[in-house]
Write a structure and sequence with these properties.
It is a single chain. About 30% of the residues lie in helices and about 25% in strands. It is of the alpha+beta class. The chain is globular, with a radius of gyration of 19 Å. The two termini are about 20 Å apart.
Length: about 270
């Protein structure tokens, strides 16, 4: 049974689920991209390790030129990437540390000394607070100091934004993808995602003269949802975390969740009777 939501499922941000979701997203992104980059590149999965306090829930001026409408321009066929917005940049008790591990992706040049061409980050709740935020921003700054590309996928509502784009220009959408090209450091490509929007198909840059490849986030999330059996693991009987959805969006989310629960109950009843 697919997710009841047309785009990002806000229930997947539950602290008990997100680490599993995060791992699957990174793995399936790697698989999807490796099939496109050819033999000249390879996609590797790296891991960032840091210590965090126990007890926490782990979960410059700009000018924005919008293409049309409020968000990115949706593509047509599933193979066609979407068109992003373009953001042009101007000039008490000692806590017990807990180890956190976060995977990320790197596209490397197979015949160019294994040089990192593109870094792809899937943001976690712990990237937005405490030592995890500081470590993430340090890694972000290190990438931006090179000529590598950076793709940041932020599907987490909780916490202040951490992507490489001034927060005041990100808009009101709860999720976003930000692409920073090594050849265009004073520009950002922004894919804002609202509650009722499908996820974007993102243009992922490689070397300066190579054609972009496409990161099909709707397909990746659908695969993660299916392989993770989240239709049976997610508890849709309450409200999604964190509890701060706008009233109209909350009513919409509750309705979709209730429909899903009804379908699941019917399926379980059929299986029981059989």
């Amino acid at each position: 049974m697919p997710s009841p939501f047309p785009g990002m499922d806000p229930y997947l941000e539950h602290p008990g689920l997100w680490p599993d979701v995060h791992q699957r997203l990174v793995t399936y992104m790697s698989d999807a991209l490796q099939g496109q980059v050819g033999r000249a590149f390879y996609v590797s999965i790296g891991e960032r390790v840091y210590l965090e306090e126990a007890g926490r829930e782990v979960m410059p001026d700009v000018a924005v030129v919008r293409a049309r409408g409020r968000g990115y321009v949706p593509g047509g066929s599933p193979a066609e990437p979407d068109t992003p917005l373009v953001v042009a940049l101007e000039e008490e008790e000692a806590p017990v540390p807990v180890e956190r591990r976060e995977p990320f992706l790197e596209v490397r040049d197979a015949y160019g000394g294994h040089r990192v061409v593109t870094v792809i980050e899937v943001v976690s709740p712990s990237n937005k607070r405490g030592p995890g935020r500081a470590l993430y921003l340090q890694k972000q700054a290190e990438v931006l100091a090179t000529d590598a590309n950076l793709v940041e996928v932020d599907l987490i509502r909780a916490g202040p934004p951490v992507v490489a784009c001034p927060s005041g220009r990100l808009g009101d959408e709860p999720w976003r993808v930000v692409v920073t090209r090594g050849a265009r450091r004073r520009q950002r490509e922004l894919y804002p995602v609202g509650y009722r929007d499908r996820l974007p198909r993102v243009r992922v840059p490689l070397r300066r003269d190579d054609a972009d490849v496409v990161l099909d986030l709707p397909a990746v999330l659908a695969l993660a949802y299916e392989r993770g059996a989240y239709d049976r693991r997610v508890d849709y009987r309450g409200d999604p975390p964190p509890p701060d959805l706008p009233r109209t969006d909350l009513a919409w989310a509750r309705a979709l969740a209730a429909e899903h629960e009804a379908r699941r109950a019917a399926e379980e009843a059929d299986e029981g009777s059989g």
